[in-house]
Queue: 3 jobs
Job 1
Amino acid sequence: MTAPGRDGGLGLEYLSVFGMPLPDYVALAARLGCDFVSVNYGRPANAPADHGGETLRESAALRKDLAEAVAGHGLRIELVEGFAIVPNAGIERYAADLDAIARLGARSICAVGMDRDLGRTRAQFAALADMASERGLRVTTEVGAGTIRTFEKARALWQAVAHPGFALLIDTMHFFRFGGRATDLDTLPPGAVGHVQLCDVPMPARIESYMEEALFERRAPGEGDLPLGPFLARLPASVPIGLEVPIRSEADAGIDAETRLGRCLARTRALIADPA
């Protein structure tokens, strides 16, 4: 159920569900009225230690189950994470992965830049965007992740790659914690932002470990200090918004995923309707 005025749709990000089995995750998203799900092609970063089973990268059977669940519930796969630009490893190694992801019907992938050589990073992203575009996919890269920590660096990379199949992914926690401002969106043309992962956090941080907070203890939109209203007001309506709100403390207290994420979606829809 797309929020009024936002044809990019609302969905769930896999980090929010702590490694939940994929068919259950898709069913949850459908019950909550989502338009899409995003998934990780490898092992989810915040899955419990006893999380077993193969990953999407390893298992054709798991990919088949995911595709059937998505089709059965009338959703789509918006984003597939689990790719990296690293030194001394060409992106040609992802060819088979991209073939499989295209068969899933996904729209985009996210690749994180981990190479400090920005010239090489630019070239690798351009080559990856070429490979993805040939398969009907778009490449995004996350602002604030890997070596692309600031909005200024991310914008410069996007401008240098200059590929219609390459866009920025904004995770609101990383974007604002690394100095981003809602008004930064005013400096980007339509199409520069390909995906948003939405959450809230306090400013400044109250949890000492950045990764602990990012993977396990974010907040529902409107329950932290980020200027999400002004941000959403500037976000083009075509950009998909995925809720990336892992809240382990609530899960440990017995609050189920449907209740946790239902609250997050309700708050997001309210912010979209009245971003003031």
Job 2
Amino acid sequence: MNYDREISGFKFAMLRCMPFYGEVLLRVPIIANRKVRTACTNGRVIEYSPLFFMRLSPAERNFVIMHEVMHIILRHYVRCGKRNAVLWNTAADIIVNNTLKEMTSQLNKSGINFKCPDSAVTGQVFSSDTTEKIYADLCRRNDESNNKPSKIKIKTGWNREQETAPPSDIIETEVLSGTAAEGLGDGEMRALLKNLHNKYRGASGSSYLPFEISGALQGKRVRWDRLLRDFMVQEAGDESSYLTPERKYLHMDLIIPGLGTRNEKIEEIWAFVDCSGSVSVEEMREFLFQLRSITRQFKCVMNICYWDTKINDVYKNITKDEEIEKCLPNHSGGTDINCVYGWLRENRVKPNLMLILTDGAFGCLNDAVFIPALKQKTILVINNESVYSDDFKRIGKTARI
């Protein structure tokens, strides 16, 4: 059976009822593929099994389509990183299905048939929960090292849990039929989401944005260089000023603008740059040259470390602009922010101030390695406006590039 007409009708119905989701749906190819067991996505396209769709009602088919679209919107395929794929997919399904169940009543009232299939994975979710938080809970309840569990324990309520079969809609991507080029890339999708959020803010359905994306799209993060300058001025002391000096101070030995004389002056700054590929070369260059400008202004030392799943390249005592051109990453792999804290521990480095440049999809923090005391000395610089994680607040102040 060909479901193209039905899917097209659903897309335009969503465009009228919830335009934010409707516009995303119009840009995502949805293709039949008999090799797929149910339905799945690789972050660019959605493919479904016609045999699976035949067993579902029209309302359940609409739910499944929106389920896969939500995975794309939340970038679950990209954010998985080195995590246990089965547990991550389960956490992602719990977040997605909870959001869609909240939308069900409004969609049905608007004339759109929408129903959660009985086989859908559900669990306890609070309004401020993120996929990372649910994943961490699943890791505590299950063996994280088991990559192919037959059953997964899920929290369903206070002191209640149940076992369920693992979902497979993000894991099946090796069977996709090679149509990925037709869909939007990750960067294009991020830009689209931001534009749609601004366009449809307050419109019907906008209240159903999951917390982990609505927080990122609604929040106005300060630029990292402004936050860093404020931090440096504060640490340098109250005598610091970047305003035009008043004439009554000119007879004194105080030089303004300039730095105070408190002992808290920052001696060196450590910059940890994600070289996994999520930060572009242009973004790296802009970040490093701006940082060099600030360190020169405050007369402090600049150190650069490139990381993916480990610290690969370390460049110390950068004092000249031309030296930055030689400080390039020589490796590129996965993403695991815990390697930064592991390296600091192993090398007994205690930064006065550290910046971490990444896209935010860096894995979940390992409490055995993480250093909470560095929170007050860390600025997390994010180049991705459509991602949010509970770990941001634990790491330090968050700023945008």
Job 3
Amino acid sequence: MFTDWNFWFSVITAVVAIVALMQTKQQIRLSNKQHLFDKRVENYLIAKGLIQLYEINKNSLIVKNDMPMFEVDFIFEQMTNNKYLEKITRVITNPLEEPYHKEFLISMENIRAVSAEIDFIFSGKVATFLGEYVLHYQELLLKMYQYQILLNKMRESAQDFNLTLEEAQEKVNEKKYQEELRKAAEILKQDYDILKKENVEKKVEKQIKLY
């Protein structure tokens, strides 16, 4: 009788352990599922904010002309005019000063991280399209920032060496950097067009709702 009791006690203990293990696995699965949902929402809202900023400013983003793009500071401010990017809006008028410079570098790394995460947490071509858009948005902001530094150097050269605008442009190779900025803007436009053509936003939202 004692032996039977030991046997059934062992069976019951094993069953309880199995049930507890199954419950733990279920809780982990639900926790992971919730974490994935949260990350999808978080990163999609950031990306959607960047899409909306582009939609508002796309018509005045980059205008072709032979003059230096002195309006790049205004464009940068408009392209960072939301809650996610508000910390770096002022960096364009203080590009090499602290804490603006540090905040800008941190934000650039954060946007790159968002781009990489999008590619991991969403599936299919829409993940690639959205991730590339976010990455190229970051690259455009970086080009604007670098170009503003160049403009500041150009102004300094003109004052220090009593140069004309054309001479100052040539001295700092302004046209080369302006062309790089235009190319970055064109790449972002192409990305945006793909997002709209492929209906990426709705497809991404559908993936979020599945969870």
